[in-house]
Write a structure and sequence with these properties.
It is a single chain. This protein has a domain of about 60 residues: 2,3-Dihydroxybiphenyl 1,2-Dioxygenase, domain 1, CATH 3.10.180.10. It is built from 6 helices and 9 strands; from the N terminus they run E-H-E-E-E-H-E-H-E-E-E-E-H-H-H. The strands form 2 sheets. Strands 5, 6, 7, 8 and 9 form a 5-stranded mixed beta sheet that branches. Strand 7 and strand 8 form a beta hairpin. Helix 4 crosses helix 6. The radius of gyration is 18 Å and the shape is elongated. About 15% of the residues are buried.
Amino acid sequence: MMRYGGTVLSVTDIAAARRFYEELFGLEVWQDYGIDVAFTCGLVLQQHFGRLVGLPEECVLSRPCNMELYFEEEDFDGFLERLKRYLRIEWLGEPVEHAWGQRVVRFYDPDGHLVEVGEAMRMVARRFLASGMTPEAVSVRMDVSVGDLRKLLGA
């Protein structure tokens, strides 16, 4: 049986990359092999990626912009405050709110990987309910059934 193992990112400075993901996202290290660090969530950082896979280092691209790492955050405003402390972060625009109510921000990590952090969907639903919206109105705004909304809130 096949099982998805995680995502491997090529990084230029393993210590800086590890610090970035630990401090900003609160990720926990599962295994540390020096130039290869695996987090409990399945994300892996690999220095000297080209050598590992048999490619010249100049073939390992920076900023391919054809994929992104996606994280969900329950305290979106708190995350934005933490992110602002990283002065060298290149933001891909300002935070936006999608039509379904989820707030997201996109930026590049120190090695040019595109990262999106979105407000956890259950927090979006809770925010709408706290504003006085009925579950039916929230389901319309978020474009989900009332049943799926209940599942989301139970998560």
